[in-house]
Design a protein that fits this description.
With 130 residues, this protein is α+β, with helices and mostly antiparallel strands. The chain has three helices and six strands, in the order ααββββββα. Helices cover 29% and strands 25% of the residues. The radius of gyration is 14 Å and the shape is globular.
Length: 130
């Protein structure tokens, strides 16, 4: 795992650290061939330079976000972005993470993508990649 992501996880509260470590482990295991780094202050995974999944700590808990998740047709990804195609789920304990759901969402993140990499070039307009 990326050392910066390890450092991000290590500085969280004990409960959030457990959540972050599980998320990072499953994401790294499922998304081979992706790049991961700290981007805008939190861990994000990229496929061909396009952000696809990341997580951060908020008041409501640890937010797992899929940039193109609104098109995954997944009931549990219920926090949808108003402006873009993102969808999220919040966790407050490691036990809430359903690994089978997570693996399914990660698989979809590789096949359902909007082009966030070129959003600035297109003046905020998103185009579907896959």
């Amino acid at each position: 795992m990326d050392t910066a992501i390890n450092a991000y996880n290590a500085k969280q509260t004990p409960a959030n650290k457990e959540i972050c470590n599980v998320l990072a482990s499953v994401i790294n295991g499922e998304l081979t061939g992706t790049e991961s780094k700290i981007w805008h202050g939190h861990p994000v995974w990229f496929l061909n330079g396009n952000p696809i999944v990341g997580y951060n700590i908020q008041k409501a808990g640890c937010r797992l976000m899929f940039w193109s998740g609104a098109d995954f047709d997944e009931e549990k990804l219920n926090v949808k972005g108003a402006k873009f195609k993102d969808a999220s789920i919040f966790y407050t304990s490691e036990g809430q993470i359903d690994r089978e759901d997570l693996k399914r969402w990660l698989k979809k993140s590789g096949t359902i993508q909007w082009d966030y990499k070129n959003i600035v070039k297109r003046k905020g307009k998103l185009e579907r990649l896959k």
